[in-house]
Design goal:
Elements lengths: L2 E11 L2 E10 L4 E6 L5 H15 L7 H10 L7 H22 L3 H4 L7 E7 L5 H13 L4 E4 L12 H19 L4 E5 L6 H9 L8 E3 L7 H8 L6 E3 L6 H9 L5 E2 L8 H14 L3 E2 L7 H13 L6 E2 L23 E2 L2 E3 L12 H6 L21
Parallel strand pairs: 4-5, 4-11, 5-6, 6-7, 7-8, 8-9, 9-10
Antiparallel strand pairs: 1-2, 2-3, 4-13, 12-13
Helix pairs in contact: 1-3, 2-3, 5-6, 6-7, 7-8
């Protein structure tokens, strides 16, 4: 069997672009992958086109060797654009191999260790009352892990961290009182804070209020997270932006965080994700995958989650609390993962278990989209 074609499709689905990739073989078996670098899809398409030049006519079963060649075939190795391209190709190659062998992808990763994948859901209420209502509804539907969004996270363009942290801390204390001690409660600060701001936020709540604090600060400097660790006992969930095992390395080896927010569509696909999972297991760090993309990403992550021992929860954007944020993609993806209550059942069909209506995909358009460019009240740039 040989790779015959690699076709990237950057298309608008619902409220954002998805970059899905089809790999065709000379034996009629095809595979689907997805890239996770939202907002810079055109850059990733360019990288895929470069890789296509030497991948056509190669053996699609040689996944590990092709990964090494893609990563190391240029003098300027790595970077999020290149690993997002590698991710999509790697996932599609796993889909092909699973279909060709008649086994689900998780069998290629060592076999499943669980039959269902627990998820965490996110409340989207604009205020505390709505959050409490949504969280209680999620608990009634079976969710025991819930994430909230900070105050001021949805804005028209101005974001002041100090105005957010006091109100958000009060929200968290009240939510814990309302929801009780059993539910896992976390928050995603979307790397919007400085070390001092994040420490101040944590210190405004009683110990035990939160079970995880996700991406409170930017990740470029592990020492900054170590400084924050000395000022709080809340477990950290970090890594959705990491684009290789090497970016995870200092966080894992220096025991900085407790949950890996790995994204299989950014880190280098399933090949790289499995390496990070094994490394994390040795340090008792649990996998808590990032999953805001489309059904291909969800399916690939379900197979990954099924095959690793150190798994906590998978992010879902399909809970009742996020109805307005769901993708309208049923016609494009006639076969895709769906929630069974608060869990995803592990699919045993060959490959990823996702089907794509390629004719409909070809009719979709690409739309340039930018994440909000937020500013402080003084006009300076801040993070989204």
């Amino acid at each position: 069997m040989k790779i015959k074609a690699i076709i990237p499709y950057p298309v608008w689905v619902g409220t954002r672009n998805q970059l899905i990739v089809k790999i065709e073989t000379d034996e009629g078996i095809h595979g689907w992958g997805e890239s996770g670098l939202s907002g810079r899809e055109k850059a990733v398409v360019g990288a895929i086109e470069h890789y296509r030049e030497f991948l056509v006519d190669r053996d699609p079963f040689a996944i590990g060797a092709l990964w090494q060649e893609m990563y190391r075939s240029q003098y300027f190795e790595g970077g999020r654009v290149l690993t997002a391209a590698i991710s999509a190709i790697d996932i599609a190659l796993h889909d092909i191999k699973g279909k060709a062998l008649g086994v689900p992808v998780h069998e290629l990763l060592g076999g499943k260790q669980r039959d269902c994948i627990p998820t965490f859901a996110t409340t989207r209420g604009p205020g505390l009352a709505e959050m409490i209502e949504q969280a209680k509804d999620l608990m009634a539907r079976g969710w025991d892990a819930i994430r909230i969004v900070p105050a001021g996270h949805v804005s028209s363009g101005v974001y002041e961290p100090r105005q957010s942290i006091g109100e958000t801390a009060a929200w968290c204390v009240r939510l814990r009182e309302e929801l009780g001690p059993a539910v896992v409660l976390g928050i995603d600060y979307h790397h919007r804070l400085s070390v001092a701001e994040a420490a101040s936020y944590c210190q405004k709540m009683p110990s035990g209020t939160l079970d995880f604090l996700e991406e409170p600060i930017r990740d470029e400097t592990p020492q900054a997270y170590e400084a924050l660790r000395r000022m709080t006992d809340i477990p950290f969930a970090i890594g959705e932006e990491f684009a290789s095992k090497w970016q995870f390395m200092p966080y894992i080896e220096r025991d900085i965080h407790q949950f890996n927010r790995i994204d299989v569509c950014n880190v280098g696909g399933l090949t790289e994700a499995m390496k990070v999972a094994g490394w994390s297991e040795a340090h008792y760090v649990d996998m808590m995958p990032h999953n805001p993309l489309g059904p291909i990403c969800t399916a690939a992550t379900i197979h990954f989650a099924a095959a690793v021992a150190n798994f906590a929860w998978l992010e879902t954007r399909s809970s009742p609390a996020e109805e307005a944020h769901r993708f309208d993609d049923a016609e494009i993806f006639p076969q895709k993962p769906s929630l069974d209550g608060a869990v995803y059942r592990v699919d045993d069909r060959p490959g990823l278990g996702v089907e794509v209506d390629e004719e409909r995909v070809r009719k979709q358009t690409f739309k340039f989209w930018e994440a909000p460019h937020l500013r402080r009240a003084d006009g300076s740039v801040t993070n989204w």
